[in-house]
Records
---
Amino acid sequence: MHRSRLYGLFIDTPRDEAPAAAAFWSAALGVAARPVPGEEQFIALAGAHPALTVDVQAVDDAPRYHVDIETDDGAAETARLTGLGAVEVARWLDCHILRAPGGHLLCVVPIHTDPEFFAAHARTWP
Amino acid sequence: MHRSRLYGLFIDTPRDEAPAAAAFWSAALGVAARPVPGEEQFIALAGAHPALTVDVQAVDDAPRYHVDIETDDGAAETARLTGLGAVEVARWLDCHILRAPGGHLLCVVPIHTDPEFFAAHARTWP
């Protein structure tokens, strides 16, 4: 048995345009834009949404959004989602990067939110 | 003075693949997938997140996500966001479709959530 929940929205932006994107989304959503210490490609927009993490991420790729699913068991959650038709396209540290049926990117990541919030909102899978 | 908040995540999917995408996301997030009456290009994933509307949308375009910002004044919110650097690229009914600095699509839409929830979570702009 393991648990997971839709955790984050990432505004993946070509590296050169990431500062402009962070400035826009910061002003658009009314929150500060702050680089994540140790992972400076992520610019956190803390407070942009009451129950969803929103970051700008600088990438070497075309602009896109992706979503993160946080889980207490990355291998089990990845197996569950690939069993539903997603394809694992990459690994990055302890994140599994999948492409869903229909073509969208999602990442399976360890629990990032407060454990009590996770416990209250995650779904349990057999 | 007007108000707005980040309201929705839309999984825009090429029309032919939208049923497979809806089936995947429904199972992945543990919720039903139901067409929105009168707007059958939208397949609602109600309950996918406690405070964010999540839909699959069938589109005649490449797969992408987009976000919606709901507001009590679409013209004022669109003017605010274009003033921050976004470009209005289309209109669809009472929705303003914008491209943000960095290249991401967002839509400005009328209030869709419960008015009390909107009032509790929206930001106020001068």
---
Amino acid sequence: MAQNNRITLYDLVLASGCTISPFVWRTKYALKHKGFDIDLVPNGFTGIKELTNGFSDRLPVIVDDGHWVKDSWAIAEYLDEKYPERPMLFFGDSHKILTKFIDGWLWATAIRPWFTCYIKDYHDLSRPEDHHYVRSSREKLFLGGRTLEESQAGREQRLPLVPPQLEPLRLLLKDTPWLGGKSPNYTDYCILAVFLWTASVATIPPLHADDPLKDYIDRGFDLYGGLGRHPGMHNLFGLPKPAAQETSA
Amino acid sequence: MAQNNRITLYDLVLASGCTISPFVWRTKYALKHKGFDIDLVPNGFTGIKELTNGFSDRLPVIVDDGHWVKDSWAIAEYLDEKYPERPMLFFGDSHKILTKFIDGWLWATAIRPWFTCYIKDYHDLSRPEDHHYVRSSREKLFLGGRTLEESQAGREQRLPLVPPQLEPLRLLLKDTPWLGGKSPNYTDYCILAVFLWTASVATIPPLHADDPLKDYIDRGFDLYGGLGRHPGMHNLFGLPKPAAQETSA
């Protein structure tokens, strides 16, 4: 049992101290959902293995009264299994399976294109000691050898292609305040984590000012005392509308 | 309480007697999931209002011991509410909300393109007395005034575009036998209904012979004594592979 109701979370942060990893973001929300106070240990992209005494080379990692758990999905399952008397994150197998589906859809639809639109910002906003690692790992692993600058170039033309693709999410949220129904659950935290990641790096907005998703995203960022309102986050809304040009569905 | 465990279902059928409506298909599966025997009343596309004494102009409609219910989603909710002691179709709000999401995704991804690929088959396979209605309603409401023949033309070029788009469903089914987890639930019936609709009209196959979805679809069609194996159904697997040509993700 977490001592004094506190769980330690190893965070992955930018120079501003703002969380960047969508996986850490959803773990932060999951811990709050379960009613825990969080002892945050901020870290950058490098030195994770040493920091966690060899336990993991990726974050998030939590330590619950001496018990270490890694991987955001495994952490969520651990929290429900260990603390079933607290508000649940998941409700049965279908819920888990379908959460993976909508999360995979949103990554393919939003993070995939936004990644190249903000990859230079992502680098510039990271801690100075992480710059070399961020550049070399991202250029090699995710950008097929292209530079951060080449990848981000022309984003003004690419950004307007994304909002129309989010229509299925808008449709779903017409009929319900949360994907969890009357209150949010882990599905919402997965979806919100995509927008939280984006707000941590987006120096120009990816969504239009009048996007109906704004209501949901604002309510999500405001949860748990404004958990998503960390200093250093950027405004998601204000992408200019294409002038007299139809968007394609 | 259903007398003698029987519920009446007004079916929407082709000349072969095979169900065509995906909404009726999922209601058939839902009734079997809840353990009912079905008294099927077969109908075509026309005369539904008269047949149901003005209760509905669309199918499915069920009659449970004199109580009439219409709309496949409302029927599923009715069955769970009225018979909670029988196996449940839904598990909480998130399950319903996310089922709508994956169902909407599959309609946009598969039924939308397949509709025009099989719309002439759909007409030709319907009951002769429905031909006029099917042609005029589909050409006016769904095809923007194009004829069935114009719409279906060129399908050999369009069909190969669909299977690569189903990859998110394949990925999901790598880790679970059913979208319900260890056993199927209403999510599976919604997904299977799309393929059951397609099998009812597809005179040439829409999926490749080695599609990993075949295992799931076959198991789904075999449920409840081969509920999806009605005479008149077509083989879904056998679409020729593009020769030495990469498919795009």
---
Amino acid sequence: MEENNIALITRMVLEAIEKQNREEKGFLVPVGVSARHLHLTQEHVEILFGKGYQLTRKKELMGGQFASNETVTIVGLKLRAIENVRVLGPVRGKSQVEISATDAVRLGIKAPVRESGNIKDSAPIAVVGPKGAVYLEEGCIIAMRHIHMSPKDAKAAGVSDGDIVSVKADNERGTIFNHVKIRVDESFTLEMHIDTDEANACGIRTGQTVTIKKSI
Amino acid sequence: MEENNIALITRMVLEAIEKQNREEKGFLVPVGVSARHLHLTQEHVEILFGKGYQLTRKKELMGGQFASNETVTIVGLKLRAIENVRVLGPVRGKSQVEISATDAVRLGIKAPVRESGNIKDSAPIAVVGPKGAVYLEEGCIIAMRHIHMSPKDAKAAGVSDGDIVSVKADNERGTIFNHVKIRVDESFTLEMHIDTDEANACGIRTGQTVTIKKSI
């Protein structure tokens, strides 16, 4: 065997062992389970809740967002409805409804899995409030799972904004989520956001932790 | 470096490469999504549907089982109900209700994740039919995901009855299921059984395929 090959193979083995050790340890991330909810423009808030209406704060969320006291009923193409869907504030530039795949089946609509904000050609949905209704031609999505973190956390985890990682839930059901996007911002608290389907399917509750692995 | 170490490391590398090639290829398994359903004893069939009643066949399933035309309403401890739950036949030695974790939340009960048949100390549930009702002190479970296969398939996949494997769904959402039990029997058709939560959370539909990996 050539000396070069021996050196190469030895380095490969050492690197593999080191990588394995690093990944076995992983980086712990608390989970936040997102129930169905929606974001509204101020224009839509006023149509649904009355002229000049302002959303009222129920609970603070990360990054200056809040759960409002306001709820709506959403109705899909087959005229099936889900009641008591929470509005998040503050108002945004575009209205967006985030549901689970189970909700999409229940409503009879085809909502795509998307990052928040990316609603082009997503599913149409009707939103009904106490003072009016709006019909969104597009805006209903299934939120793509993702991890929020500060630049400091990103450094500690060895990841960057936009990275795609795998995340392991080492519980009774035992699941690895691939294709998980990292989002880094100073205003973010370390948290992985999954929807109720993902939480129920994988036996995870808010506050439990998962571990970041590199892509598998 | 010792000659022994070089030989050892070289063998480790070759084995690792071979293992990786084998696992990257994997073994394809079609998925069957199980909606909520129940199995009944003949005694319970007669309480729910009338004396001497026999379940009637709607659709054949694997291993001599069938979906019957009969459905029931199930009611949890908080008196919340789910209607139109399908009865599978033929009758069994013990009645058993299989629901998703989402259903458990909806019903307000704590159902454990279990293999079919293992219902000791599982959740209580009421079952209501057109002619009567039974209260199961135990019997409500969330079915643990598993793969059915024939001995021939098991040989091809390199697994044995009772093995625990990981299974990869390489689709848009991208998920690896760990802790998946292999069940081998001559009467089994190759199929991975997951519940509606797992299917919805992971973007999988009946008839799509996943790949068996060794435990990750």
---
Amino acid sequence: MKLATLKDSTRDGRLVVVSRDLTRCSEVGHIARTLQAALDDWAHAGPRLARVAEGLETGSQPAIRFHEHDAASPLPRAYQWADGSAYINHVELVRRARGAEVPESFYTDPLMYQGGSDGFLGPRDPIIAADEAWGIDMEGEVAVIVDDVPMGASEEEARSAIRLVLLVNDVSLRNLVPAELAKGFGFFQSKPASAFSPVAVTPDELGEAWDGGRLHLPLLVSLNGKTFGRADAGTDMTFDFGRLVAHAAKTRPLAAGSIVGSGTVSNRENGGPGRPAAAGGIGYSCIAEQRMVETIEMGAPNTPFLAFGDTVRIEMKDKTGHSIFGAIEQTVKPLGTA
Amino acid sequence: MKLATLKDSTRDGRLVVVSRDLTRCSEVGHIARTLQAALDDWAHAGPRLARVAEGLETGSQPAIRFHEHDAASPLPRAYQWADGSAYINHVELVRRARGAEVPESFYTDPLMYQGGSDGFLGPRDPIIAADEAWGIDMEGEVAVIVDDVPMGASEEEARSAIRLVLLVNDVSLRNLVPAELAKGFGFFQSKPASAFSPVAVTPDELGEAWDGGRLHLPLLVSLNGKTFGRADAGTDMTFDFGRLVAHAAKTRPLAAGSIVGSGTVSNRENGGPGRPAAAGGIGYSCIAEQRMVETIEMGAPNTPFLAFGDTVRIEMKDKTGHSIFGAIEQTVKPLGTA
């Protein structure tokens, strides 16, 4: 089943079930007006929504055209956005670029930060920033939306609580990061609103690409129409989503509708840090990573962060080349021009 | 106007307007079923709720008994909980206890962390922890709930967006903090669910004690029935709420219903770190601070963190001795016994 939220005059938009090919959708206000409402009562709403999805495929369900640009993030606002950093290759590059070691514990204890969730950008909304000098960057990631997870849940319990899978652009302001992390309390101003893919899908929709905790398909990240990265989200993911969700639930329960992210998708290439897509490599899911590789190899970064007018696109396709989640496609714009 | 949320079978409870003396309340489902719904449309809902509050005081409004123990946190779940650390005395003690300097920037740039907001404890709910060895501690704080705040808002704009004031117990797991902060991404497991006071009040309700950005009254914190701290929340607050909210909104808008906290209320005493309440001093709003003073003065901490069975109470009284927000009163219990 594929779900989306259409923008309307309300803060939470309205839930629709979307056809597998992303061309049609059905309103489901009689089941749940919003995605959060469906997640709040998934045991009842989930099966009813699934029947609508079946009807959409067989043609028995009345439908309207679905346009990705009408979609808000599936949860336009959420009660929790907890973002992991599960691809240790990314962490290793961050550290190597500044000449530091990766602590041994990083291979057994997931990194995770609490993100802001009071308002997400729509998948086609601009990325608004007051200043290019903030070092605007995308981070292409996979995320899951969970049902209620009890405090102290096992990885197995955590995996079984995963209801939906989607993509994220975890927008980051790189030049604000060092000073902010030096203060010791983690990210705040350096992580403005994230954007999510137009469509969130149930794990069964992913077939063999979903192994219960990892999504084994390339994440396609492009910048101004050119491929920037195509790292496989199932490769080099040190901690799977079961582990990440269990980490988040160690000392407190997670409420239904909590979103847990993978961190920037990042692959090694031939055991090394990889090569830019422009040089025939797998590339990267964020500019910072390409800059770190440049720093390691050439002593200084070369690729600039995003400028006003730049457009980022993040998408994932199934084995037959069809878009699974629709595309995140965002242009960077200065504050006051939206 | 005073607002509370009564627990019911739903995740968000139901909004009531509470009489100034906290003895009676009126259901206001015809205006807004939940506090978040009221905040989503405050321009319309706020004045209508205020008329109910007037009717409660004059006796023209039908009312039922209000019992603090029936209340959930005013927002049982929220889209944002951003907690500052505005009392630099607290930060100075943290640093001094470990022999470190306070960076100069800390006096001009607020510390703030993104907290989890998917589920708050009710004001009389137990604090559940799997292990006493986590170093369970309370943090008595003041917080505000804001309306929509645009990205880049000035301190003045931020101040004018404050809709409600309330108290917090920002439960902290002290022994999980060092390893977590060393990872660089801030708090996560070390900050489980917080609890808020039974009642949230509009700033006008606070009279002269509210100066637009600070609440000038002692925060009464007790442990197992004995006074632990009575630090004045208006004293030594380096950054007022306008500054904290503007800091949070620097790179992104804040959505209505976002909660911004002050950090542990902490006063100097005669220019120094103060004395325990048991020794006749102003005392502290968290155990960690008393332990830091013990470490500075005696080389090692003496006061233990919370044990199962311990009860914490956090309250604030007006000049005539009446409770303003009702009391947070929580007993620590092991996982599985709730």
